[in-house]
Specification:
Blueprint lengths: L1 H33 L5 H24 L4 H25 L11 H21 L7 H19 L5 H33 L4 H49 L3 H6 L2 H43 L1 H8 L1 H39 L1 H6 L3 H53 L5 H42 L20 E8 L10 E8 L4 E5 L6 H8 L7 E6 L2 E2 L5 H7 E4 L10 H5 L8 H10 L3 H6 L17 H13 L5 E5 L7 H12 L5 E5 L3 H5 L3 E6 L2 E6 L1 H7 L2 H9 L8
Parallel strand pairs: 3-8, 3-9, 6-7, 7-8
Antiparallel strand pairs: 1-2, 1-4, 4-5, 9-10
Length: 719
Amino acid sequence: MAGNTAAIMHRVVALIAAVCVDLSLFYASGWVVTQSVFGHLARLWVSAALRWLALIAVTRLTLGHLTPLLCRLITAYGLLPAVFETGAKVLYTEGSQCGHWADARCWLMCAGASLAAALFWEITIPDTNEAASKKEKTQKARVLFMRVLYLFKPDYQLLLGGLVFLSLAVICEMFIPFYTGRVIDILSSQYQPNEFLSALLFMGLYSLGSSFSAGCRGGLLMCGISSYTCRMKVKLFEALTRQEIGFFETIKTGEITSRLSRDTNLMGRTVCLNVNVLLRTFIKTLGMISLMMNLSWKLTFLVLVETPITGLLQNIYDTHYQRLSLAMQDSMARANDAANEVVSGIRVVRSFSTEKYEARRYDNRLMDTHNIKTRRDTVRAVYLLARRLTGLVIHVFMLYYGRLFIQRGQMTTGNLVSFILYQSNLGDNIRTLTYIFGDMLNSVGAAGKVFEYLDRKPQVSTDGDFKPDQLTGHVSFRHLNFAYPAFPSKKVLQDFSLELKPSQMTALVGLSGGGKSTCVSLLERFYEPQDGEILLDNKPLNSYEHHYLHKKISVVSQEPALFSGSIRDNIAYGLPDCSLDEIQEAARKANAHHFIRRLEKGYDTEVGEGGSQLSKSERQQIAIARALVREPQVLILDEITSSLDADSENEVQQALAKCPNLTLLVIAHKLKTIEAADQIVVVSGGKVEERGTHQELMAMKGLYYKLREQRFTEEDSLP
């Protein structure tokens, strides 16, 4: 408590000292100008510099530190009067009375104007300690925004054309009120037909030019947005297809499709359209202020006084309205929860006869929501009242002084009408400027999510460039340790070592979850092992060129994925130069040629979405043909024979036997397939437990023997 009192006393002392020092310098500067020691403008700036230095020094001495808010306040307070007087002197060769005479009224007026400017500065460009955490976010938003604009570079001609027509539309629109006032002046004075017709003609031409330019601007910008959106969709799709398989296992499909469909559209439309609105409003505001200054600079300064006041009101309103809106949402959620609890537990409510109690509880929740909504609406009503009263007071003062200026001959009736027309739009434009800039930075949030995917580097690198002319297909798994990205603490493979020799068939056997399919995924480089390495012909897999590796290593899975299109397209998938003869030869090896020929359109038959027009065994045979057409050196069959009948399985086995140099890895549960393997590897718990031929493993009477005895069914299959 004593500490708080001391802090308050420090602030009071600092304020009193600052006021005394500033008043002394203010009156001293007035004495200097009356003695003609310095010129008027020189005195202004010397006084401003001295007052600024003095206030900084007093604040540091009394408080011990300067916050950013105090520094901005002192800067605005010290420099704003000098800037105002200099502008008035340069533009209109006359200054205000406070520019020459120093008294308490002038000091209070300058202090009030400086405080209003500092408050407006604080509202529009916050940089307090509380907002320090937001600086990094704002800076990031600005960087993202500039990056979005840079990606519009291929469409710069469309955007440049849109900017030109935007400027023309705004310029033409600004002159319409001017000629409206001109027409009134002509009608109120002695009527001159030529001047009247000339004013109407120009007003019509400017109206036509504004409409035409606005239409061209919209068309060019929409074309640019469409081109940009298509380009971003392709970029994002390419970036997504380069990611490792683990990425798609940890990211939801809905999130990915949302980035492709929604966020790319927002990047193009929201950002570009916001820039359009910002530039249009900015140019229009500057033009209107310039024309208003030409009509009456005094009335213009009077009108601009409304800006910091409305900005302060807007800031206060936003703070309270958002807080009450969040509270109302939470209250509505609690009311909905109460209703859901009763509906889902209606049997309990009925059995304990608590219907009236639950109704009262729900009513209390609704009343809480109603009270918060009433407070929120009251805040909005007070804000609207204050804003309209402010606008009304400024409008009344503007009309009062406008009448005085007309009586003194400083402006005409038509000029006042033109000024009123400009003023009616100026406030809306300034509010739009303060809102659109923040909204434009917020809109790049969608862009940030897209760039997050665009910038993401796959954890499984595809930068290898090794492409040997000859490949034997010798594969070595050396001391692998691996856990899936979604479950990093759960080891799937532990110190796993295995060798696949050329021209041999290796069968992996084991219970589900033992790590068999994981070996296939690692060999396909869907993932990278945490420890150990996989070698192909004594070279690490990551050193091979991406397309070369996946042409030499092919996989056929238990549930093959076919793409919409013809059978020919699916077999030659990823091989644009593949001939029909090669496709047919691969189909013969996969025992698919006969059933394809019986189809009405043969190899041009559509398979439907996901191969829905074909049976499971037919899809499996086409998948085998798709693998064989690549002439792989290493072929992986992951439980493919489960969908084939005995004859088809025999034909596939015979076709594979005709590939003498092929390294074959089979994951199968059928006994016949396993018995024919040159090497059987029993995998359990992520480790190699046993290896050898069928006869050797049966003689060992170990894990393989137990699996055969306990798990093989009467149809010679493991579950």
